[in-house]
Amino acid sequence: MTHDLAGAPDAFFERIRAILSEARGRTYASVNAIMVEAYWKIGQRIVEEEQGGQAKAAYGSQLMPELSRRLGNEFGKGFSVANLKNARQFYLRFPDQEKRYTLRSELSWSHYRLIMRVEDAEARAYYIREAADQGWSSRQLERNIRSGWHRRLLSPKAPAEDRQPPDPRGLIKDPYVLEFLGLPEDQRLHEADLETALIGKLQHFLLELGRGFSFVARQFRISTETNHFYVDLVFYNYLLKCFVLIDLKTDKLSHQDIGQIDMYVRLFDDLKRAADDNPTLGIILCADKDETIVRYSVLQESEQLFASKYLAVLPSEEALARELEARHVLDVQPGGSESDDCA
């Protein structure tokens, strides 16, 4: 019995295409992982054998150029002096006892060349885990490292998927970096313009929001017996298992803004949240904020409300440090005071 494939449905060919695509993807991942391990072993040989375990070559300045020339002649591209130095640095960053924890098959050599330049060991471990688990491209990883992603989280520990309930502070940032919008840094926007810009770059915004976020609606209406209220942006986070409301403010945070997001969250919990959802979270995304207002408002004690600043450009190390310092400037030890000068 024969079959006429000329009239076969598109779904049949799509299934065959999916099989081949998956096979190619697995082949690429396998080859990629083998090459990453090869670079690690090259770095190990350079450090342990040819350099006697020291970070600097003991055999003269021509060691790397000669090795590069010979490997290039036989194996082609990929063995420049710069890349051999990267291999050496790769091994030094991740010595033998750490190798099995850090060589993730999902990550390419381009990923590792970026990660190994991060000085802090905990931050390196974080970027390895997140880049592998979240499927970050090397370009996205570079952007996240440059924007201080790890440092901007309210808590550096991301919530485990099997932990109940997870801590939202492991997913929420302050500040958020919106350089992908191309906003004018020195001009005040209307909130509707900011909302439209974010929707226009929704994929970028979801990547900046981070793990587990999916878009639900803009200008989401919540109706009571007497009024209609509209939330700028509504998301759902499948890790936190809750809705996340974002209220956009293109000027400085005020007490009225805090009261508004508090009301929105209460309304949403009462009228929209399902029985198996965790309590709704509310984020005020504002152009600027006074940490004193944050400290002496319901934001300080609430586990559902947050205020985060947005930045229109990628911050420098110095600018990010100033932002993070401002975030903690009023932190005090339990039972302490903000200043002893008033005693």
Descriptive notes:
With 343 residues, the protein is α/β, with parallel strands linked by helices. The protein has a six-stranded mixed beta sheet. The chain is elongated.
Keywords:
alpha/beta; 13 helices; 14% strand
Number of DSSP helical runs: 13
Major β-sheet profile: 6 strands, mixed
The low-pLDDT segments are 332-343
Strand content: 5-15%
Helix-strand string: HHHHHHHHEHHEEEHEHEH
Mean pLDDT: 85
**Strand neighbour order, sheet with most strands:** 1-6-5-4-3-2
Assign the structural class, choosing from mainly alpha, mainly beta, alpha/beta, alpha+beta, or little secondary structure.
Answer: alpha/beta
Distance between the termini: 96 Å
Radius of gyration over all CA atoms, rounded: 25 Å
Helix content: 40-55%
Number of strands: 6
Please state the overall shape, judged from the principal axes of the Cα atoms: elongated
